[in-house]
Amino acid sequence: MSDFLPTGIQLTYLVAASLFILGLKKLGSPATARNGNIVAAVGMLLAIAATMLDQHVLNYEMILLGLAIGSGIGAIVAYKVQMTEMPQMVGLLNGLGGAASALVAVAEFWRLLDSSQAIPLDVNISMLLDVLIGGVTFTGSFLAFAKLQGLISGSPITFPFQQPFNLLLLGAYIVGSAYLIITPDSLPIFLGVVGVSLVLGVMFVIPIGGGDMPVVISLLNSLSGVAAAAAGFVVMNNMLIIAGALVGASGLILTEIMCKAMNRSLFSVLFSAFGTGSSSGGGAASGGATDQSVRSIDPEEGAMMLGYARSVVIVPGYGMAVAQAQHSVRELSDQLEKMGVDVKYAIHPVAGRMPGHMNVLLAEANVPYTQLYDMDDINPQFDQADVALVIGANDVVNPAARSDTNSPIYGMPILEVDRAKQTIVIKRGMSTGFAGVDNELFYKDKTTMLFGSAKDMVAKLVSEVKQL
């Protein structure tokens, strides 16, 4: 029995790791994402059970109490948080993951200090890395949450000598870490290193504008995984190392994909202080930063354009998410299909405030996965589309990214809706997007503006289409 238990634990870890990889694979498609989440959750349950047996955890009452409290909070949050606030929740969860990993290092340092045991060099280095990455992830994620929630300005926050100050903080961390490697039993220096890591997290996020928050969230998600892997080295748990490495790698890959979708380097995202971070304001009569005129229509005219079209491409954006208009959009799509109109949905990689935001919203409204098209697949089809219906999207459909070399978003891949025969844009007003630049699309001859809330305007379009 004594020989079987360690073998069984390692086999359980192997099964759990396999389920993690399979779950991540399934999360890559909206059609299989829900099953992927369940598969990965089962893997985590197996990993936790095996770890408790491996570490001879005897106080199961406390484990069950923590599980009950955490599950209750998670269930309430999952039901209460709106889809538009999902990026904020992801930011909070990233921060909590980083904090948990850093606390593992702090607890292990405290335990070794109380026991007067010599701290091995490899464990010491792992603890210091865990504190750095976990601390940066914790405060950085909470600051990203505050920016997205509007608790602080979404605009980049900069001040003179900001980068030298950051280098000074990093230097202080390195010096403190070197001291702890030589003299590993200094509690004040260790606590000072923890404090510096927390400040570094704040300094990491404040100069980044709201328009780049999706990339920041993805990067912080990667860092939370790296912090977990570092915690695995601290407590010598292979399963934690594997799980953290998978999260770290997948988050970094997603970050790179999003940077390419914006035609920006990660360095530019982190250090260029780009974008205003605000897409609010502006009335229907405002021309934004230009005196060009726009052509507006009412829902009746819009319904006629859509109802008598052969092909319609719907482009959802953050405005649709804010208005919770996805169910109305699905109803409009169903009505058009009954009239023989071919309907497709065009999804930009960075539409919304987090990766996959539009996919999740449309899946919530039971939009068929076969109607969702990625940017590279749908762009060649815009020439054949009779109408492109843009609902609350802005920067991701701005032709300036393709034609204006002076534009700050020049070179960013966009959904080429201006190539459609007609374009209808549903928007509250003429405000700019997160990048803070005016949209050339609104002033083109083939573009008509339908001003108002996305949910109200789409509902009116549905009503008018039914009368055709």
- Strands of the biggest beta sheet: in what spatial order? 3-2-1-4-5-6
- Could you spell the SSE succession in H and E letters? HHHHHHHHHHHEHHEHEHEHEEH
Tally of DSSP helical segments: 17
Biggest sheet architecture: 6 strands, parallel
Low-confidence stretches are 276-289
The Rg value, from CA coordinates, equals 25 Å
SS elements, strand count: 6
Percent helix, as a range, is 55-70%
Please identify the structural class as seen in this structure: alpha/beta
Proportion of strand residues: 5-15%
Mean pLDDT: 85
The global form is: globular
How many angstroms does the end-to-end distance come to? 76 Å
Structural overview:
With 468 residues, the chain is α/β, with parallel strands linked by helices. 59% of the residues lie in helices and 7% in strands. The chain is built from 17 helices and 6 strands. A 6-stranded parallel β-sheet has the order 3-2-1-4-5-6. Strand 2, helix 14 and strand 3 form a beta-alpha-beta unit. It is globular. About 3% of the residues have low confidence.
List keywords for this structure.
468 residues, alpha/beta
Topology:
Layout: H1 4-26, H2 33-54, H3 60-80, H4 86-114, H5 121-149, H6 162-182, H7 187-205, H8 213-235, H9 238-261, H10 266-271, H11 299-307, E1 311-316, H12 318-323, H13 326-338, E2 342-347, H14 357-364, E3 372-374, H15 375-378, E4 387-391, H16 400-403, E5 422-427, E6 447-451, H17 454-466
Parallel strand pairs: 1-2, 1-4, 2-3, 4-5, 5-6
Helix pairs in contact: 1-2, 1-9, 4-5, 4-8, 5-6, 5-7, 5-8, 6-7, 8-9, 11-17, 13-17
